[in-house]
Specification:
Structural class: mainly alpha
Helix content: 55-70%
Largest sheet: 2 strands, antiparallel
Shape: elongated
Strand order of the largest sheet: 1-2
Number of helices: 2
Distance between the termini: 6 Å
Strand content: 5-15%
Length: 73
Amino acid sequence: MSHPGWMLIVLGLLIVAAGAAWLFAPSAPWLGRLPGDIVIERPNSRFYFPVMTCILLSLLLSAMMWIVRQFQR
């Protein structure tokens, strides 16, 4: 599977998956409000750092890259 066409197919599937996630993100209100996300609210400001959301996205992207590498072999 070292033909460049396979890489284009996998890249296209990843783009479709990203587009679907973007469309359905409003129906997943828990995304960005996971336990472990840091929220500090003051009267005049709010600080928000989504630690667990970043870790979850990192795991998902790592899994996708692992799948892409498996297709390259």
